[in-house]
Structures are given as C-alpha cells and as structure tokens.
Specification:
The protein is an alpha/beta fold. 22% of the residues lie in helices and 30% in strands. Strands 7, 8, 11, 12, 13, 14, 15 and 16 form an eight-stranded mixed β-sheet that branches. Strand 5, helix 5 and strand 6 form a beta-alpha-beta unit. The structure holds zinc ion. The site of zinc ion (ZN) has 4 residues, from loops.
Length: 257
C-alpha cells in the first residue's frame, strides 16, 4: 500500500517537550520503499505501538530535513532498529552536512551500520529503491541548514516544506500533488523563523495541490484548533486542506495522477 503515516504532528520545543502532540516524524511507504522522515523524540515508540505495527527493520532509508531535536532526536536508535542492531548492514541515511560534521546528531559509531550516508545539498537528487526525491533549495532562514523535499513515485508526487521562515517564491519549489507544510505559528512572529498560517495559505493558494496537509504545530496553532483552521482554509481557497493528527494515515493511491 502507498501511504503516509504521521507518527507525530508536534512542532517546536513546547509542544514537543510537553508531548501535547507526538513527535515521531512521518513514515512513507511508496512503490515498495519505506522511508522515515524526521524521527523526533518517541519515533521508535510510535513505530512499535502503531496499529498495525510499523517494523523499523523494514525501513530502506531515513531522511533528516535538519538537525533540530524535534526532527532528529531518535535518528540513532532508528538506525539501530533499521539495521537489526547493526547486524544487518542496510539502508541509506540522508542529512544536511551540519547534522554530520561539527557537533553531529548522527553518532560516528552508528554510521557504519548503514549502506550509505548521503549529504543533502541544494538542488540535490537522491534515490531510495524505486522512489526519488530532490531538495530544491536550502532553507537558510531557520538557524540551521534545512531542506524541504519533493518526493516522486511512479504515480505520486509529494512535497514536504520543512522548517523555514517564509521567503520569496518558496511556493515555486514545491509543486507536488500532495503538499505537506510545517506550520508552527498561527501568526507571524518577528523573532521565530517558522511558517505561519498566512504563509501556508499563500503557498497553497498559489500551488493548488490535490491535497494540502498542515502539520508540525506549535502552541499557538494547537490552541487555535488546527482542524477548524484547515476546514476554513479549504472553504476559503477551494483546495482540500486538512490538519494532520497523530497516527493519521493518507492513502496515496487516492491522489495518484
Ligand atoms: Zn527546526
């Protein structure tokens, strides 16, 4: 089955540390490949307690969009679990260079468990089994190196706009049929480098994906009931917009071309 499962929808420090929402990242199963994106705190537990259970040994790759803890905390244990404790060398791990070089979030001794570590770069193109993905532009407005993803399967295209502040023409880089946006803030903040609801609206209105999914919610979004905001946005701009919830699964075949 081709699907995306949200193992968590928490964004930024407070929602994560209080676990108001879970923070396990996103599990993608597409054209025979299983990929875990941004395994934040609790990712392993979320996989193992998922119904049906998601067995990390079935993973073919792990992608970190950036090194912040809410995206990378469980990366080492997930690599161990993907490789059967390091006994079965397999899989590819993708991460920006600042997750690997100084003060790395991926431990040196764990790296030899996987087939390959690939460094994410601007305009990079990558493959995991039958699926490919690209990182069109470096999100420099987030304090660390961060990348959104355009993932392509045989019939599906999925764009994930990872953490960033809004920058001009961001929408031009993410044209997938399914568009997932990390919307941390309800309103713009001059000091917090994250997308807000208004930014998401602008991007969705411009790109008109078949489905837009809001996720990675900070406190201001949670308090404002993201499911209601998504419904209002849908009606306002005429594009199907939903708010992700913990454990939510999307059947990608429904949105194939
Ligand atoms: Zn971040």
């Amino acid at each position: 089955m081709n699907k995306i499962k949200f193992l968590g929808t928490a964004g930024a420090r407070f929602v994560v540390m209080k676990q108001l929402r879970k923070s396990g990242g996103v599990w993608l199963s597409l054209d025979g490949a299983n990929v875990l994106i941004d395994p934040g705190p609790g990712s392993l537990i979320r996989c193992l307690t998922s119904k049906p259970k998601l067995n990390p040994i079935n993973l073919d790759g792990i992608i970190l969009t950036h090194r912040h803890l809410d995206h990378s905390n469980d990366v080492n244990i997930m690599i161990e679990a993907m490789t059967n404790g390091g006994w079965k060398k397999k899989g590819i791990v993708f991460a920006p260079s600042d997750a690997l070089d100084n003060d790395p979030v991926i431990l040196e001794y764990i790296r030899k468990y996987v087939d390959k570590i690939e460094v994410l770069k601007e305009k990079g193109k990558y493959k995991i089994k039958n699926i490919s993905f690209s990182t069109p532009i470096k999100h420099v407005h987030h304090g660390v190196e961060s990348y959104g993803l355009n993932i392509s399967g045989k019939k599906s295209s999925i764009s994930i706009i990872a953490d960033t502040n809004y920058f001009k023409d961001i929408e031009k880089h993410y044209k997938g049929d399914i568009l997932i946006i990390n919307v941390v803030r309800l309103e713009k903040s001059p000091t917090i480098e994250h997308l807000c609801l208004e930014d998401a609206e602008k991007i969705i209105k411009e790109n008109k994906p078949k489905l837009a999914i809001l996720t990675h919610f900070g406190m201001t979004m949670i308090k404002a009931k993201p499911w209601e905001l998504a419904e209002k946005l849908s009606k306002k701009i005429g594009v199907k917009v939903i708010a992700a919830s913990d454990g939510m699964e999307i059947d990608l075949n429904e949105y194939c071309q």
